[in-house]
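Assess the record.
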Amino acid sequence: MSTYRRTAVPLADGELTVGIWGSGRRAVLAVHGVTSSHRAWQLVAERLPADTLLIAPDLRGRGDSAALPGPYGMARHADDCVAALDALGYAEVVVAGHSMGGFVALVLADRHPERVRRLVLVDGGPPLPLPPGDTPEERLSAVIGPAAARLTMRFRDRDAYREHWRAHPAFAEWTPAVEAYVDYDLTGEPGDLRSKASADAVRDDSVDLYTGGAAAGAWSRLRHEALFLRAELGMLGALPALYQDPAPIAARMPVRTIEDSNHYTILLGPHGADSVAETL
């Protein structure tokens, strides 16, 4: 198993928490999704070669970087990730992004092209149609469903939070990696526990992801070698997939559909993690 540690990268407005697995000069920067944390990459990190370092920040507004304030957005996250690379002394890396992290990865490559060797986009990054709804909150709920509701909920204890996650249809297989991911997301006092993810950050980032210019411009200007890994199943562990039609993506880069994986288990399930690690 790869060694694991966390470090704090100083920024002008606080500290960015970064999870690090492994060692060596070959490095992968791994960017998580909209309500997630760096712990989403644990299974992938454990499957990488011993000479590969995986660097996974908690994006501002999430995990132990939750106290970092806005503004948020894909460009802000991309610049924070580059600050982490600077602090750790890595000039050029493979950049992988899952879900919203795929959009951050694209924007990072667009804003800082010299820092990116190649891109691996994991069920996120290429444009998505604007979801239904009249407000950002309604559109967010339409896309991520139970994950959006979780941000406003309070839990009496750790077991109650685990049971909430166990009921999610995408997590039919409960593993130690999923449990560690869930436990890391919990904060607060007993009787009033909650997700670490900031509802403001999730809302603002979702608006930027769908309607902001940074991600759309980065996609149109893409010039790095890139590969798209597509989950066969969607956010709720069933069809349709998040990316229902891979043909427009395949016109820009190779697409590989990971069978028997959903939007979450493409990272947090052993089969999905095997495929992502093999690609990296």
